[in-house]
Specification:
This protein is of the alpha+beta class. It is built from nine helices and eight strands. The chain has helices at residues 2-11, 16-24, 80-85, 106-115, 120-143, 146-156, 160-163, 166-173, 177-189, and strands at residues 27-31, 36-38, 46-52, 55-61, 64-71, 76-77, 92-95, 99-105. The strands form two sheets. A four-stranded antiparallel sheet has the order 1-8-3-6. It has a four-stranded antiparallel sheet with strand order 2-7-4-5. α8 (166-173) crosses α9 (177-189). The relative contact order is 0.15. InterPro entries: cNMP-bd_dom (IPR000595), cNMP-bd_dom_sf (IPR018490), RmlC-like_jellyroll (IPR014710). This is Cyclic nucleotide-binding protein.
């Protein structure tokens, strides 16, 4: 849980009692590989911090899945639009390996903010993380080639090509797995 301490103390300037209060209101959720954290059509009632494991977020159109995010160790995980609006989500979040997540419910987090406005710093941090990720991904699809998108993904998630299957990475990049193989080969040759 050192990463939570880094967020609370180092990044946000909160005190250890804020972290302790927050942790006292959380629950540990464990998922087996292929288990869902949330499924399309349900309301997201939590914000989570990935302690271990890995997950993917995807939307489905007919029988085709489109990956739109990955959550690795020490990252935030939630269906954020659903969480904020308390409306059903249009995405699925699935464990790609056995995963452990520290979760706080919508109700408990909002009560915490009501009780102590210092927790607004955490709420802003969470919002900023998801907003910046969304903007970077959107801009990348508008400005960058598939090769550049792959390089940006590897920079954002060092070692992801060893963690996540090529099929899922290709889907995230909006390309076919064969195209990703060529990109990886060319990237390796050009190094």
């Amino acid at each position: 849980m050192e990463f939570l301490k880094d967020i609370f103390i180092d990044k946000l300037g909160l005190e250890i009692h804020h972290l302790e209060k927050f942790i006292s209101l959380t629950k540990i959720k464990t998922l087996k590989k292929k288990e869902f954290l949330i499924q399309e059509g349900t309301v997201c009632e939590f914000i989570g911090f990935v302690v271990s494991g890995k997950l993917r977020s995807y939307v489905q159109n007919d029988s085709v899945e489109f990956n739109n995010d990955f959550y690795l160790q020490n990252s935030l995980v939630t269906a954020y639009t659903s969480y904020l609006t308390q409306n059903p989500t249009n995405c699925n979040i699935e464990a790609l390996a056995d995963t452990e997540i520290i979760c706080i419910t919508y109700e408990k987090f909002n009560a915490l903010i009501e009780e102590d406005v210092h927790f607004l710093k955490l709420a802003k941090y969470i919002s900023d993380v998801f907003f910046i990720k969304k903007c970077k991904r959107e801009t990348s699809f508008l400005k960058n080639s598939a090769t550049e998108r792959f390089e940006l993904l590897c920079k954002a998630y060092p070692g992801i090509e060893q963690e996540i299957s090529q099929y899922h990475i290709a889907s995230y990049l909006g390309i076919k797995p064969e195209s990703l193989s060529r990109i990886k080969l060319l990237t390796y040759i050009n190094k």
